[in-house]
Please model this.
Amino acid sequence: MKTILVLFLLGCLGFWFFRTKPVEKTSFHHINIQDMKLKITFSDTELSATIYDNPTARDFVSLLPLTIELEDYANTEKIFYPERKLTSEGAPNGYQPSKGDITYYAPWGDVAIFYKDFGPAGGLISLGTIDGNGIDLLKKVGKEQVTFELISD
Model:
C-alpha cells in the first residue's frame, strides 16, 4: 500500500513539474533599434509595419520579398502560408494578439495578421505590428496580390 501511495505522489509531482505552462499574455518581442520596417503593398496602397527582432521574425524576413494572396479567417484575421514553416526557437507557449498584430501560428504554419483583438492562443508567436491605421486598410483586402518586403534604409 505504501508503494502505491509513493508512486501516486511521485506521479502527481511529475505531472505538476512537467505540465504545460499557461499561455503568456506577454509578447515574444522587445522593441529596440534592431527592429525592421516592412512595406506591405496592394492595389495602389502602401502600408508600413514594424517587425520585431526575434528568431521567428528573422526567419520570416529571410523569405522576403514575398507576393501572396491573403485569405480571411474567422472574420478576425488575414492569413497566408509561407513556402515553409518558420522556426519557433525560443518562443513562449503562446500570445494574446491585438488588432494590427502580425503573428505566426506554429501548429498550422501560417502567418496571421489580426484586424480584431483576440484571446490568448497557444502556438501563436508575435512577429510585429502594422503601423498607424494601416490594419483598417489591410482588413478590406480581397482576392488580390499583396507584397511584403523590407524597407531599405
Summary: Residues 24-150 form a domain with the Cyclophilin fold (CATH 2.40.100.20).
